[in-house]
Amino acid sequence: MTLFRDDGIVLRTQKLGEADRIITLLTRGNGRVRAVARGVRRTKSKFGARLEPFSHVDVQFFARGGELIGRGLPLCTQSETIAAYGGAIVTDYARYTAGTAMLETAERFTEHEGEPAVQQYLLLVGGLRTLANGLHAPHLVLDAFLLRSLAVNGYAPSFDACARCGMPGPNRFFSVGSGGVVCGDCRVPGSVVPSSEAIGLLSALLTGDWETADACEARHVREGSGLVAAYLHWHLERGLRSLRYVEK
Q1: 74 vs 221: CA distance, rounded Å
Q2: Kind of pairing between the strands at 173-175 and 31-37
Q3: How big is the CA angle at 34 (ends 28 and 35), to the nearest 5 degrees?
Q4: Which of 66, 84, 119, 149 has the lowest tally of Cβ within 10 angstroms?
Q5: What span, in angstroms and rounded, lies between the C-alpha atoms of 86 and 89?
Q6: Domain count, the chain
Q7: Are 127 and 84 spatial neighbours (Cβ–Cβ below 8 Å)?
C-alpha cells in the first residue's frame, strides 16, 4: 500500500454497501479520482460530513502498488476541510442548481481518471468560492464558469473576430460549429443573429468584466445563456442534465 495526499473538490458521492461511499473528486495533482471511503455513512463517522459535494478538502489516499489510479479504487482514509462551500450553496436553490451544473461540467471535462487538470481544478475552486460568496447572480457565475471551462479545454469561443477567417469584429452571426461569431462571408446554415448586448455579455464573462456582466438586462442574460448551453452541448456532444434546473 502506498500513501498519497492531495487536495480536491468533491464532485459527487455514491452509496456502496451498507456504510461506505464512493467519492469522486477533482484533485489538484491527480485530476479526477474515485476512492472508497469506508464507514462514512455511519453516524459515528469522524469525517463523513466533510466528503460531501462542493467541499474543498485535503485528502489522504491509500492505494495498492505505486500509483494512485490502478486496478482497484484507492481508499480515502482521512480528510480535512479547506473550505466548506456547500453550506452557503445548498441552502439557496439558484446557487445549488448552478453549483451542481458546475460540478457536472468539471467531471465531464475530466473523463480520464488520474490525468492532472490543474486549470480546470483551479477554475472550479474559484467558481464555487464566487458562488458561495453571493457577489454575483448564480446564473452569471455559471455561464462564466462554462465559458472558461471551454476555453481551458481548447474550445474558447470567439466573440469579436470571425472564428473562421479572422475578420475583425464586430461580426453579427454566431455559429456553435464554427467556434463563435462569424462574418457574412463565412456564415453557415444554422447560424443565428444574437443581439450585440448578449455577445458583449458573454465576452465580459469570459474575460472577467463583472461590472459589464452585472449591469446586463435580464433578456440579454437569457439570450446569452442559451448560446452558452448550445455551444457547450456541441463540444460535449450531449447536454448537461443539471442545466434544465438552473434558474434564468
Answers
A1: 43
A2: unpaired
A3: 105
A4: 66
A5: 5
A6: 2
A7: no
Confirm whether 239 is domain-assigned: yes
- The DSSP element (H or E) to which 101 belongs, if any, is helix 93-108
| Three cell numbers written together for 213 | 456582466
- Integer angstrom CA distances of residue 204 from 136, 160, 193, 194, 215: 13, 12, 19, 15, 11
Print the domain residue range for 231: 135-243
pLDDT at 247: 67
Report the CATH number at residue 6.
2.40.50.140
**Interval 157-196: pLDDT, tens:** 999 999 999 999 899 999 999 999 999 999 999 899 999 9
Confirm whether pTM is higher than 0.90. Answer: yes
Residue at 53: amino acid letter: P
